[in-house]
Amino acid sequence: MRGLPKLAGWTRLALLALAALPAAGCSYALVGKAQNLPQDVRKIYVQPLTNQTTRSQLDQFLTSAIANELLTRPRFSVSASGGEADAVLSGSVRSFEVRPLSYDAEGRATDYEILITASMALKRTDEQQTVLWENSNYLFREDYQLQVSPTGYFDQEDPAIRQAAQRFAETVITDLLERF
User: What does pTM read for this prediction?
Assistant: First the structure.
């Protein structure tokens, strides 16, 4: 190794390994940057999710979060209708639960966990309605605390659902793009 200054054996070995990486064809992609969908899929219609739970507005929170998340991806635009879109993203919220996690000294629950289960699919708008991606078993969890004041407890369920909806949307769109 004439061209390298006198380095410890492990240092020389590390430098050689780093130099060999480009030749080895090592490929990677940053999360959210992969393009596993066909290039012609650019306009996506986000169909309002079906709510099979007893929790009102849950489908609206999730649908809105998904559309907003798609808008953050420069490759895609959100279509106002399925007829104008290259693909339709649809889904169903199958279950919603709120479970207490901890209690105060008087036996009142102070921390809760939200669980949301959903099915999602992306299909082309052509006659065959080819399924491009689907996941029928999303399970999301979000913890939240009740705000305690001298006059009582303040329910934080709606803000917690909005937070869970944002995480849900990020995961759905990343999964759709990365196919994890």
Answer: 0.73
